Amino acid sequence: EVQLVESGGGLVQPGRSMKLSCAASGFTFSNYGMAWVRQAPTKGLEWVATISYDGSSTYYRDSVKGRFTISRDNAKSTLYLQMNSLRSEDTATYYCTRIHTGFAYWGQGTLVTVSS
Amino acid sequence: DTVLTQSPALAVSPGERVSISCRASEGVNSYMHWYQQKPGQQPKLLIYKASNLASGVPARFSGSGSGTDFTLTIDPVEADDTATYFCQQSWNDPWTFGGGTKLELK
To answer: Are A77 and A4 in contact (CB under 8 A)?
Structure first.
């Protein structure tokens, strides 16, 4: 069974940093591209970043370019999202997803609240 | 960015057929996918590449369309289908989602 378990969310002040992790199991992690998708409270879904199966290629939405970094450790089957210079508009539940013609599997999400 | 437009809400009775539409501001070939999100839960993939049923999804769900106009159909609707349904395209960068259609049962 595919499982994606996010961690690392919480309350953080504007301008500070936070790192999210996603532990994957139930499939060969190194075979799949992965992504982070976020959802602001009571809002819709927004793609944040994608990383290729081997980590050689990364893609970001414009609003997080230069602030967020997606990475992966295939030996640990873990996906990461380093978030710097956080803003109030980054407040959202962040989902780890496995890509395969769409976002095929989703974690339960971790809530990031950016507030002073 | 490719804007995906969905109707905000629909209300149907159990046993009926419902169609949820998604219109793209530019062509997305067949790279349109549909997700179901129930309150307090993560989204779940229902349909990928316009018309392909994801693993474990009941055959009551189906998808159609290409280019700019796509439809998710549920037939027949069951009480458990109460949820918000999102379309998402992966043809144009950045990948974008529709605003979601909230399906309520009468």
So the answer is: no
Helices then strands, counting H and E runs in chain A, come out as 0, 11
- B8 preceded by a cis bond (ω within 30 of 0): no
Phi and psi at residue A31, to the nearest 5°: -95, -10
What pLDDT score was predicted for residue A101?
81
Inter-chain Cβ pairs, chain A and chain B, closer than 8 A: 52
Least confident of A6-10, A100-104, A108-112, B9-13: A100-104
B54: helix, coil or strand? coil
Contact yes or no for B94 and A44 at CB 8 A: no
pLDDT at A42 over 90: no
Give contacts of B31 with chain A, Cβ < 8 Å.
Answer: 101
* Dist CA B52 CA B28 (whole Å): 16
* Mean pLDDT estimate for chain A: 96
